[in-house]
Request: fold
Amino acid sequence: MAKVTLRLFAGAREIAGNGTMTFEASTVQDLLVQAQDDLGEEFTQILSISRVWLNGEPVEGDSTISS
Reply:
């Protein structure tokens, strides 16, 4: 697993009360599940209409995060 910094913008940032969160995850899906567990249903709703980028490239949930 890699230590990952999740950067949040707009509504997601407001929900978190912060622009970044740090997690240990091996896939994008692992990361997003942890964030949803921490931030709740409102974040999950925002996530459903959001794009996820990893190192400047758009990614899907099954994308691997390398350390």
Observations:
- Strands lie at 2-7, 20-25, 53-54, 57-58.
- The radius of gyration is 11 Å.
